[in-house]
Amino acid sequence: MKMAIIGAGKWGRALNHAFARKNDVVITSRHRHEDLENFVSIEEAMSREYLVLVIPAQFARRWMEEHFVDRGQKVLVAAKGIEIATGALLNEVFETFLPPERLAFLSGPSFAKEVMESLPTALVVSSLSRDLAERYAAALPDFIKGYVDDDVAGAEVGGAYKNVIAIAGGVCDGLKLGNNARAAMISRGLVEMARFGVHMGARAETFLSLGGAGDLFLTASSRLSRNYRVGIGLSQGKSLEEILEELGEVAEGVGTARALHRIAERDALYLPIAREVYAMLEEGKSPQKSVGDLLQS
Known about the structure:
alpha/beta; 7-stranded mixed beta sheet; globular
C-alpha cells in the first residue's frame, strides 16, 4: 500500500515504523524532521491513496479545513478524543470531509515506545467498510495482530474516555491509595465509559474488547501514559499549566474531560469519575477532596 503518515510525534513515528515494514510509507508534519529519511511535504503526502492521520483531536477539524484535498483517499484516524467545542466524536468530525465508507479508526492498548521496539501488540481497526478495515489491518507488521469491527462509535468513545480515567489512575497512584483503590477506580471507570458509549450509540460489548478494557487497563496504570502522568502531577499539587509544560506533549484526556463535562451537563449524564477529573483540572479541586467525594457519591 502507498501510505502517508500525517503527524510526526511519538505515535506518528511509531506508526511510521510499523507500517513501513510491509508498505511504501512516507511521513509528514507541520515542521520538517531531518532525521526522518522518508519525510515529505504535506502536498506530496496528500497524493497517497492511504492516509494515516495522527493529529490531536482538538486540531483535527482545522487541519482538515486547511490541508485536506479530497482525491478519493482512504483515511485511518489514529488520534483519540472528543471535540470540546461541539462534543463531536472524531468520526463525526471527519465525516464532514469524506464519506464514512472511506474512514477507519485505530484503537487498542499501544504505547508508542513499545511499538517502536517492535514488541507484540494487538490493535483494532474499526470501519463501516469491512473491506477497508481489513486492508489497514493486513498492512500492520507481523508483531501487531490486527482485529476488525464496525463499531466506530465504540472505538472512538473507548479511545477518548480511557484518557480521562488514566488521569484518575495517576492521581490514585500519586496519592498512594493502594491497589484496591486503583482496581476499583479502573473497573468503575469501565462501567462509566460503557454507559457513556451506549448513550453515544456504541455497543456495550465493545467496551470489553481491546479498544475498551484493553486500552483502559494499559493507559490507567503506567507512567508511559501521558495522561497518567498528568494525574501524578495533580496528586503532587502542581497546576495544570505546570504539568503540561513539564510533559511537553499533548495529553488528550485534558481536552476530553472538558468535552465530557459539557456533554454530561447538556444530556444530564452521570459520569462521576470524569466529573471529578474535570473539577481537578479546571476548578482547582484538590485530589484528596475528589477522592472523598467519589467515595460518597
